[in-house]
Design goal:
heterodimer, A: alpha+beta, four-stranded mixed sheet, two-stranded antiparallel sheet, 7 strands, B: alpha+beta, Beta-Lactamase, Helix Hairpins, Heat Shock Protein 90, rod-shaped
């Protein structure tokens, strides 16, 4: 009888406090490190093609888009985005959608040029740990219905 | 021993059972609630810590040069906070001594699974949370590969533990508050159960003591009330049957008294006639004389029987009275023997003089009966021994016969009891010993019988015990 009592008391005491555990899974590991950023340009066949820029780190979506607007450099690829004097893009990341405010009008880009912007933004977002199913809204300077469209990258997702 | 007895009491058992049940219930409630609360608390705290670390790392990684140099590792470590260890190949960035607590188990899990891992450990009674994670490189298509950077962070859980302890203590305190309430409830319950039980006990005690009118009123409609009602019924029927029995007994006694009284007048006439007859037997024929002698003897027997019956009736009716006077017992016994001419057949062993207050006639009746029986049924020598203490006097009558059979002993004082069925025509009435016993009792004394040698062959021994002062019974 006495032993039962002690067992009960021990059980009670054991129920209190913080108990040690073994190793338990804590979910996805963080990500975001990268030797550089991925930009999307168009090759000779008119296909989208990723290009690695060794910037040393991944950087932000805004930085990646600035690099994209500056053009492909001497790499045999071309861009379908007209050059601009202010290659700066405003970026707002919401849970489901990334909104980009570009310094371009709809006439400055071809549909492939829009894909370049979408793919570059989404690629940086995914490399930084974001979801691949996130959609991108590209806003242009002059009012156009294209500004409200939610887009996905044909190469990602 | 007293404690054990106390524990066996109904009240104590009820109290103990109530307290035990309450304690068990409260303990179970405390245990389960405190257990689930503490688990929830620890889990949420742990999740929060893990998420914070994950977010802190995720916030700096896009700006981190890769492959990282020492500066990059330091930057990462600073973002996660103190007690953090960052490793990349041969490079280490350490802050805080507690990072030594990181277990090999956690390291190998981090490397093997490439996922964030946690472990709770207790070192020197202090709880810690270990968080370890690799940092992954994600390709644009979503495939993840380890970057080779690992982050380990050690977080103190003492605050959570203190919070849990507080929670448990308050739960135990609340449970403890239930104990006095349960004891109170148990006392009330025990009282409500025990009161009727006590009343029943008192009633049963009064019934046993002879108070047949004792009843306890049944209260409520529970099992105890049923028991009370049953006991009342039992008392009722016992009372009824005893009353009937007493009435029948009284009727029988009155009948005996009436009969003996009615017989007295014709008997006295008959006695007178028989005495005249006795005077004339000498002139009779031998046959007629024998018949006349028998009639005379039987008439004398009949007279004695009726006298004895009347004496017994007086005892039964409670009308027998003592005529107490100062008597020398030894002298009185000797007078009794002398009056019946037994002095030479009986050995009297007695002190010189023993004064006692008693009814001389009744003592004579007892002694005559005992000695008469001894002479008639036992073997000589018959011995009468008188002895006295400061409070009582014993008169012992013994004979040297075979003694009384064992099965007869309890019945010798019964009315009309005959030890030997064949010996019906003895001169006694069959009431002598009954009357002797009643006389002894009337004096506040007693009359007992046994055999001198219990094995047999020792003769019967009757002991009359009389107190020195019959008024002080």
């Amino acid at each position: 009888m006495k032993r039962v009592w002690w067992a009960a008391v021990a059980l009670l005491v054991a129920g209190c406090g913080v108990q040690p555990t073994g190793v338990t899974d804590g979910g996805e590991a963080p990500t975001g490190v990268a030797p550089g950023v991925t930009l999307y340009f168009v090759d000779a066949d008119g296909e989208l093609r990723p290009q690695q820029r060794q910037t040393g780190s991944l950087g932000t979506i805004s930085e990646a888009l600035s690099l994209l607007l500056l053009g492909p450099g001497g790499s045999g690829l071309r861009t379908e985005i007209a050059s601009t004097s202010t290659p700066r893009v405003g970026v707002t990341v919401e849970p489901e959608v990334i909104e980009l405010v570009t310094p371009l009008t709809i006439d400055d880009v071809t549909p492939l040029g829009i894909d370049q912007i979408v793919c570059t933004a989404l690629s940086t977002h995914v490399q930084g740990g974001g979801s691949r199913s996130t959609e991108v809204r590209v806003r242009f300077t002059l009012p156009t219905p294209e500004s409200d469209e939610q887009r996905t990258c044909p190469l990602i997702g | 021993m007293t404690r054990r007895l106390w524990l066996r009491g109904l009240r104590a058992r009820l109290l103990a059972a109530f307290a035990l049940v309450t304690m068990l219930g409260a303990a179970a409630a405390v245990w389960s609630s405190a257990g689930s609360a503490s688990t929830a608390l620890v889990t949420s705290y742990q999740q929060q810590l893990t998420q914070t670390i994950d977010e802190q790392i995720g916030a700096v990684t896009p700006q981190l040069t890769y492959p990282p140099d020492q500066d990059a590792l330091d930057q990462l470590r600073a973002a996660v906070g103190t007690n953090t260890l960052v490793i990349y190949e041969d490079l280490r960035s350490v802050d805080g001594a507690d990072t030594d607590l990181v277990t090999d188990e956690l390291r190998s899990a981090v490397r093997a699974e490439n996922r964030l891992a946690t472990q709770r450990i207790t070192v020197d009674g202090k709880p810690w949370l270990l968080v370890g994670t690799p940092i992954m490189i994600t390709a644009p298509d979503g495939t993840r590969t380890p970057s080779g950077i690992e982050v380990y962070s050690v977080r103190d859980l003492t605050d959570v533990e203190r919070e849990i302890d507080g929670l448990t203590m308050s739960a135990i305190t609340t449970a403890a508050l239930a104990l006095p309430l349960s004891v109170l409830a148990a006392s009330l319950a025990a009282g409500s159960v025990l009161r009727p039980v006590r009343e029943l006990r008192d009633t049963a005690g009064r019934l046993a003591a002879g108070d047949l009118d004792a009843r306890s009123p049944p209260q409520g409609a529970d099992e105890l009330a049923e028991l009370t009602a049953t006991i009342n019924e039992m008392a009722e029927s016992v009372q009824t049957s005893i009353a009937a029995m007493e009435r029948m007994q009284a009727d029988a006694k009155r009948f005996a008294a009436d009969v003996s009284h009615e017989l007295r007048t014709p008997l006295s006439t008959l006695t007178a006639v028989v005495e005249i007859l006795a005077d004339t037997t000498d002139e009779m024929e031998p046959d007629a004389r024998e018949s006349a002698q028998m009639a005379i003897t039987e008439t004398h027997r009949l007279v004695r029987l009726v006298e004895d019956l009347m004496e017994v009736s007086r005892f039964d009716a409670g009308t027998a009275r003592l005529r107490v006077e100062e008597v020398d017992v030894v002298g009185a016994v000797r007078d009794s023997l002398r009056a019946r001419g037994w002095l030479d057949r009986v050995e009297l062993v007695a002190p010189e003089e023993t004064l006692l207050r008693l009814d001389r006639r009744r003592l004579d009746v007892i002694v005559a009966n005992l000695v008469g029986n001894a002479l008639r049924h036992g073997e000589p020598p018959v011995r009468v021994h008188v002895s006295a203490s400061s409070e009582q006097v014993w008169i012992t009558v013994t004979d040297s016969g075979a003694g009384l059979p064992e099965h007869v002993l309890p019945h010798v004082f019964g009315r009309f009891y005959k030890a030997d069925a064949a010996r019906t025509r003895t001169p006694g009435s069959g009431l002598g010993l009954a009357i002797a016993l009643e006389n002894a009792r009337l004096h506040g004394g007693d009359l007992t019988v046994d055999n001198i040698d219990r094995g047999g062959g020792g003769g019967a021994r009757f002991v009359l015990r009389l107190p020195k002062d019959p008024e002080e019974r």
